[in-house]
UniProtKB/TrEMBL annotation:
The keyword Nucleus belongs to this UniProt entry's keyword annotation: no
Organism, scientific name: Catenulispora pinistramenti
Named cofactor requirement(s): pyridoxal 5'-phosphate
Name of the protein this chain belongs to: Pyridoxal-phosphate dependent enzyme
Annotated ranges, domain Tryptophan synthase beta chain-like PALP: 72-350
Entries under Gene3D superfamilies matching the protein: 3.40.50.1100
Record's keyword terms, sorted: Lyase, Pyridoxal phosphate
SUPFAM superfamilies: Tryptophan synthase beta subunit-like PLP-dependent enzymes
Upper classification of the organism: Bacteria, Bacillati, Actinomycetota, Actinomycetes, Catenulisporales
Length: 386
């Protein structure tokens, strides 16, 4: 018995069709839509049980769809929460201190644990960098062959990291979408798991631990506002899922507002949000220093818009100049992130995200109104343009 509950399935909400996990489906064969996880009922652990558990994301075992993969874990999770420079009302969660240098480890360890349970021999991933490096690291640890497709323009530091983990790196000319198409084609080979951080719902059950940790670190509550970067929405959708689970467990009494941040040169979700559209329209993306969120066609776009709307949230955009300024300011405060990792701080420090009256009047330093992540390490990224 390797799964903690009855074996889950992948489910297409549009067609109500189920796919057994060993089929290795990555999207719905009927409508090509995205699949969610069904047949698994998460339960947040009894908070009194948490204090004795190791400071990794596996402390939330009852809420996770897989048992701790003891042979492949790298101790991921429970990253520090620090006060933002000059803003005692804001905290920054230092997710760049994850084993491979980004929050993607939260989801990658789930995908590789799933691959291990299913006994697949090969995984395919595609990424602008950090998801690929995370999956490659855990795949290496699990001795599963891993092909990673990246855009040709990906930072040399990330490509070097991928190669060091032993992944077969395929650098694809053209857009981020061309890279995804090349990976999807390779993933259709038999016996291959498309370890997609976008399509595979196990990834979101990993990223949801971001809010579980926040809830613990803030003494059993969430902030009024979660400021999150959004490209494909793996952190936004994970955070939303985690908050809903805390709500279902009676540990919070309402969902926190999610304010997502896109790069102005590539902001299909912000445009759709403003226009009140349910699905993002295709856009022509311009280059941006925030490479990690430059996603012109987010496959879960409709889910992302719906999730943010249900929290009363918003999607804002930041310019490359604002990202570069925030990147420099963070570094001068001792926090060295990749440019994308400065996007949320750029929005906060440019005054784009206000504390509502109700939250600021509470204004106690121990209860910040907003928390933003520092998503990716500066050590592996190309320097900002300025
Ligand atoms: C992946 C990533 C993001 C955005 O995540 P999405 O899942 O695309 O929304 C933001 N910042 C960094 C550093 C990332 O690696
Ligand atoms: Zn379908």
């Amino acid at each position: 018995m390797r799964f903690p509950t009855a074996t889950p399935t992948l489910h297409c909400p549009a067609c109500d069709r189920h796919y057994p996990l060993p089929d290795l489906a990555w999207r719905c064969a009927t409508c090509q839509g995205v699949l969610d996880l069904a047949g698994f009922t998460p339960a947040f652990p009894d908070p009194t049980a948490l204090s004795g558990r190791a400071p990794t994301l596996w402390r939330y075992a009852e809420a996770l769809p897989l048992a701790e993969p003891t042979a492949i874990t790298l101790g991921e999770g429970m990253t520090p929460l620090v006060t933002a420079p000059g803003r005692p009302d804001v905290r920054l969660k230092v997710d760049y201190l994850m084993p491979t240098g980004s929050f993607k480890d939260r989801g990658a360890v789930m995908l590789v644990a799933l691959a291990q349970n299913l006994g697949v021999a090969r995984m395919v991933a595609d990424s602008s960098g950090n998801a690929g490096t995370a999956i490659a690291a855990y795949a290496a640890r699990a001795s599963i062959a891993c092909d990673v497709y990246v855009p040709a323009a990906t930072s040399p530091g990330k490509v070097a990291q991928l190669r060091a983990y032993g992944a077969a790196v395929h650098q694809i000319p053209g857009s981020r979408e061309d890279t995804a198409d090349a990976a999807a084609e390779a993933a259709d080979r038999p016996g291959t798991l498309y370890a997609s951080h976008v399509y595979n719902p196990y990834f979101f059950h990993g990223t949801k631990t971001y809010v579980f940790e926040l809830w613990e670190q803030l003494g059993g509550r969430l902030p009024h506002t979660l400021v999150l970067p959004v490209g494909n929405g793996t952190l936004v959708l994970g955070a939303h899922l985690g908050a809903r689970e805390l709500l279902a467990a009676g540990l919070i009494d309402h969902l926190p507002r999610i304010v997502a941040v896109q790069a102005a040169p590539c902001a299909p979700l912000a445009q759709a949000f403003r226009a009140g559209q349910p699905v993002p329209a295709p856009i022509v993306a311009e280059p941006t220093v925030a490479e990690g969120i430059a996603i012109a066609r987010p496959a879960r776009g409709a889910q992302i818009l719906e999730a943010i709307r249900t929290t009363g949230g918003a999607i804002t955009t930041v310019t490359d100049d604002q990202v570069n300024a925030a990147h420099a300011a963070l570094a001068r405060a001792g926090l060295y992130v990749e440019p994308t990792g400065a996007a949320c701080w750029a929005a906060l420090s440019a005054g784009l995200i206000d504390a509502p009256e109700s939250a600021s009047s509470r204004g106690l330093p121990e209860s910040p109104f907003a928390v933003a992540p520092l998503c990716g390490s500066g050590l592996k990224s190309k320097p900002p343009a300025s």
